[in-house]
Amino acid sequence: MRILAPAIALALASAGLHADDQFAPLRDAMVREIAAMSSVTRAETGRAEFAASVMVAMVRVPRHQFVPPDEQPYAYENRPLPIGYGQTISQPYIVALMTDLAQVGPGDVVLEIGTGSGYQAAILAELAQAVYTLEIIEPLAMQARERLGRLGYSKVRARLGDGYQGWPEHGPYDAILVTAAASHVPPPLIAQLKAGGRMVIPVGAPFMTQYLLLIEKAGDGSLSTRQVLPVRFVPLVGGG
Ligand code: SAH
């Protein structure tokens, strides 16, 4: 087994945070698996290890609270799970990778498209100053908002809406994460990305090969794009 970075080992050791949480050992095992996988995918991602802050967030957020009751036994397996309405909560490794690529820091204001269960938003809230998240399926949007409130994620604002258009009132954003696959990068999201900001988005036709893209906007507004990994996401619907 790989040796974990000290900060992560410390977070695991202080799982006393969740002393009453029977899932804590499974969550720790999930985080170790993510660490092992990040090492295997280093050539593609350019990241042998995800930031310690990202791994600590993965240790802290109770994924089992974000899946339907009958999926709870599988909540810490490193795979996507159904959350109803034909949608899925993303694979934990992918959540960690996207969060790492977005380089979210304490002062950042982040936009997420595709709230789904609210899990990715909770991970972002562990790292950022504020998180805005949009979901197009009404019952999922309502459930996620209720869940995030109940679990104390007060930095997250979640609402129903078409994420293709973004959420211009709170932008521009330091980071934008899109958790559904688009056929192209939505221009409104590019417009709402701050100079110096990062967008992580899967792009490709539904059910065909999609690629996770990291798009960086330089200080002068110019864009650079890196294709990171082939991925499979549910489609981004709505939009133009
Ligand atoms: N981030 C989620 C996983 C989301 S799956 C989590 O952590 O659980 C992708 C989600 O994107 C689905 O819930 C889907 O309904 C939503 N979605 C698809 N198209 C959208 C759009 N145009 N605007 C907002 N949400 C959208």
TrEMBL record:
A single BP term in Gene Ontology: protein repair
Domain of life: Bacteria
PROSITE patterns: PCMT
Matches recorded under Pfam families: PCMT (PF01135)
Compartment(s) of residence: Cytoplasm
Transmembrane segments: none
UniProt entry keywords in alphabetical sequence: Cytoplasm, Methyltransferase, S-adenosyl-L-methionine, Signal, Transferase
Catalytic-site annotation from UniProt: 90
Main location group: cytoplasm
Any one GO molecular function term: protein-L-isoaspartate (D-aspartate) O-methyltransferase activity
Secretion signal, residue range per the UniProt entry: 1-19
Catalytic activity as recorded in UniProt: [protein]-L-isoaspartate + S-adenosyl-L-methionine = [protein]-L-isoaspartate alpha-methyl ester + S-adenosyl-L-homocysteine
Protein task: Catalyzes the methyl esterification of L-isoaspartyl residues in peptides and proteins that result from spontaneous decomposition of normal L-aspartyl and L-asparaginyl residues. It plays a role in the repair and/or degradation of damaged proteins.
Family: Belongs to the methyltransferase superfamily. L-isoaspartyl/D-aspartyl protein methyltransferase family.
PANTHER family linked: PROTEIN-L-ISOASPARTATE O-METHYLTRANSFERASE (PTHR11579), PROTEIN-L-ISOASPARTATE(D-ASPARTATE) O-METHYLTRANSFERASE (PTHR11579:SF0)
HAMAP family per record: PIMT
Full protein name: Protein-L-isoaspartate O-methyltransferase
